[in-house]
Design goal:
Radius of gyration of chain B: 23 Å
Radius of gyration of chain A: 22 Å
Helix content of chain A: over 70%
Low-confidence stretches of chain B: 32-36
Strand content of chain B: 25-35%
Number of strands of chain A: 0
Helix content of chain B: 25-40%
Number of strands of chain B: 8
Shape of chain B: extended
Order of helices and strands of chain B: HEEEEEEEEH
Largest sheet of chain A: none
Number of domains of chain A: 1
Oligomer: heterodimer
Distance between the termini of chain A: 53 Å
Chain lengths: ~260, ~160
Amino acid sequence: MILDPLQQLGRAGLGFFERLGRGHLFLMYTLAGIPGLLLRPRLVIAQLFSVGVLTLLIILVSGVFVGMVLGLQGYNTLVDFGAEESLGVVVALSLVRELGPVVAALLFAGRAGSALTAEIGLMKATEQLSGMEMMAVDPMKRVVAPRFLAGFLSMPLLAAIFSAVGVYGGYFVGVGLLGVDDGAFWSQMQAKVDLHEDVFNGVIKSVVFGFVASWIAVFEGYDAVPTSEGVSRATTRTVVHTALAILGLDFVLTALMFGG
Amino acid sequence: MLTSRAVEIGVGLFVAAGLAALFMLAMQVSNLSANISSESYMVSAAFQNIGGLKVRSPVTVSGVRVGRVEAIDYDTSAYEAVVTLRIEDKYSSFPDDTSASIFTAGLLGEQYIALQPGGSEQNLKAGDRIHLTQSALVMEQIIGQFLYNMASKESK
């Protein structure tokens, strides 16, 4: 009787490490399946459509509104110091360094990651994956690897689109509605935003987030308990774990890139 | 289900849009790429000190923006900064004794060039040099002069 809590603790710990190890082994198999995709690019293109193109709308709309809010809030703060010309810097730096990669990744997890998990989980629940194995088709190569690669490739593009659209949203509010000088908006932005320091580091962030978000999504789907409840749990876990991983990684990456 | 052709076109557009966004971030947001669409002409002006003036800073007359700073160079023979101004063609009739000063917008704002038209009959032409210039005020110099004046008064 007295051993029960201890046993549960041990089981939970073992379960955690088991999943951690399985996740990494799964990643190895997925990465090993990617070179084979060079011969069948159509598989990846179909997934790029469902993962990337269908996520585009939410990215565009959110990007515009995030940029507009940044423009409005930044203007209200900066105008007190007579420094509203710096609005372009505020909008561009916030978007390129942080909000672009992070918010795009969170939206990506909600829109594309959950769909990937549910799709693979349902394939498993309806035994399509076992059926493929019976036909000597490796589901890792046929199902998981193209989805992972498509997510990994889409994410940096989506983040870049988010940032670019957001800058124009901020431009619209700042220059169009609030009367900041057009040239000062761009010239201050161009003077302060560094191509290597800011833009490239933002792209590196989005590449890392794309890797992690796609990995979690396909793993949760593949590892789902093959019931309707299991698939729904796996989908929830995808969104929650991806959000946590992205926000945590963002801090680590920011500290590495801009901390020193 | 969409045809595979529509899927491929969609993916192609998506990738092109992503690359275009990256290009825009690189060129428009971070690098210097001056683009003034309307017709314009260039004049130059030499300053002892340009302070925090930047390429694409505004050029104004009576507070109206008439152009932008096109280039900033340093003349190693005269030991002066040479600023090239790009002024729109519709503001083409400035006298050739127009003076140029570097001012600051607001207390900590960005710096800009203000032109002050003179009384000459001749107009500035493309490629002309503005001779009457006033350098940017550098805060440290003003404070230094102020302290120096205070000290010299006290010693009397």
